[in-house]
Specification:
mainly alpha, rod-shaped, 426 residues
Length: 426
Amino acid sequence: EAQQKDRILNEFLPHCLGERATFHEGIAKPHTASTTQSRGAAAADIAILVKELGAVIVLKRFGVLAEIEKTLLPLGIGAVFGNGPGAGINPGGGMRKIASAVSLASMESAGATDDFPSTMSIGTSTIGTDSRRGKTTPANAREGALLLLRALCELGVKSVEPYVVPMLAAALDECGSSSSNVREAAEDASVAIASLANPLAASWLIVPVIFEALHSPEWRVKAAALDRLSQVAELAPKQVSRLLPKIIPTVTAQVWDTKPQVTKSANQTLLAVCQTNENPDVSPAIPAVVNAISKPADTYKAVEELMATTFVATVDSSTLAILCPILSRGLKEKNAVRKRSCCVVIENMSRLVDSPNAVAPFGPLLVPELKKRLLEKLALEEEEAKKKEAMLKKEQQKKSTKSASGKCQGCGLKKCPKSCLFYSKK
């Protein structure tokens, strides 16, 4: 074991992180440069030893995991996806909120940026070079660490999952690197990590990390995070379906991003996550609903699709999360017919809601517009009643011999004499 440890720490790991020993390839080549191929080969060698010796021994006891963290997270996991001020550093600290979910040594460094403000601003501009993003380690070393993460994921050994999956945040953050090799390695590593993760990790770790990545100022990080969310929707549809009330508003915000790459990924992700819904009544209308989210002009087309839907299955919170934004927008239409159509859909849908708790989060979205619609209906009914009353009075006045002032229309007097044609003893 000591021999294997010495070989990993002094030969494979340095090569993987971009360091090459003198005379490594013989006396004819005393100083050979590190390449992506050589770093990938060293990463594969370490992965094979992990499979033979065990993940705990190699990653924890030999300190390989600590070296990966030092390379990818020099400021701790709390600084990932940051957008805060600093002297050439971006320590936003968005990941500090979910650092407790990370089962790595970086948990100890999660508070490394506690002195920095945690305010984050959502933008689409890029910060620039890696040095301005607070990346102090060389690009070769970060690429090698990402290649190692990918190699560990592709082993097919579940024992590495607790150590590798929490590094998804670092992999997504590196998708915004100024080095194309690092970006490619980061994207491959994030795909491998999402594939390895247990579906039960989607709710507690994967999706929260993706949400934080969507607050990054780097558009490449946003696009990569949205692609990973689509991947998770395919691998863990039940878990994603339960999270739709949180996912849909978050992804919808990215539909209006100024970068076309982010907008395209957001539209694809929105369709992928909505298709995880298990309600068979709504499934045929999902493409129209998703299209209406990105194109408000097509809102009524989606409402028409829903008007043709016969609701039979129970309506849960994930179904409401898909339909309520479109129905809320439809209630704001000026056309009364379209408003009435939305009210009909809401009435049909509300009869099958499984519990009050399912519809409670969407009350603020629909109730104000429904109240406005009710007030408009009451005002219209009141106006029609007044018109009907006026018409009735007018008809009665035509049949009466008295004018509006109470005088007879024949003689012009309030009390008709016997000579008047309209004289009556009553």
